[in-house]
Amino acid sequence: MNTRVEKALNEQVEKEASSSQFYLAMASWAEGKGLNGTAKFLYTHSDEERFHMLKLVKFINERGGSAIIPGLGVPQKNFKGIENVFQLLLDHELAVTDSINNLVDICLQEKDYSTHNFIQWYVSEQLEEEALARTILDKIKLIGNDKGGLYLFDRDLENAAIQIDKPATF
Ligand code: OFO
Question: What is the mean pLDDT of residues 103-120?
Answer without folding.
Answer: 98
